[in-house]
Structure prediction request, 118 residues.
Amino acid sequence: MSGDPDRTFDLTLSRGRGQSYTWTIDGQAYPDADPLQIRPDEHVRIRMTNQSPVVHPMHLHGHFFQVDDAVKDTVIVPGHRGQVTIDFHANNPGRWLFHCHNLYHLDAGMARVVEYVE
Prediction:
């Protein structure tokens, strides 16, 4: 995708703090996490930084996104402060799950909802 995005999210992927086993996006564990709100027809950019030592294959339902010149629906965010930026066109209104494809990370909270608003 070319051009500047209409909306950008800078997200940190990490282990939760405290005694329970959790994985978080920006310190929030699903289902008690704020949705990422977007509007129809926006160019959306999500920049992810992985603060953990393990990789996170991040998947967005309902959309394909661009990473450099590749079009994907899942991208691996490397561990140890690895960074990946995805861009997509908000052209499929609804509520879509954005989550780590390591199912035990998803089960432990590493997910957010991408939600269209007017």
